[in-house]
Every structure is written in C-alpha cells, then in structure tokens.
Sequence to fold (79 residues):
Amino acid sequence: MPLNIRSEAVNDLAGKLALQWGVSKTEAVRLALVKALEPGSPPSDEFTQRIARIQQAYAAIPASGLKADKAFFDSLNDE
Fold:
C-alpha cells in the first residue's frame, strides 16, 4: 500500500534528505525508516524525556523497607 505524505514540512524534509543522500525521496524515506528501526538507534527526545520523568517520579517514592518476596505476593492472593 503506498504512503501518501500530506504534510508539506515532511515532504520538504524528505526532499532535503534525498538531495543530501543523492537518492529519490522514496528511497530517502525508506533508508531513514530502516535506520530508525535498527537496534541500538537512539530513541526520540520525547520518549527519552517521558522515561526520565517516570524515573524521577519513581526515585522520589520513599522506600518502605518492606521485603517483596514470594510470601508477600502469596499473601495478596490469600495463599
């Protein structure tokens, strides 16, 4: 199924990348998507910021000192 890009900004970016890489717009988009999906490629800034906020919120929770072992989880299920 073909991809139809309706955003002029995305179209312009694809054109700039195509010129920079010396390929067609379609090939530039394909290569960029392949590169973005490679293992180890950096996540987006938005994703990184969301994870950082979650980590900060978790770190701010004081430790209860309770041990969460098998007996604890069994007690939650009345076992």
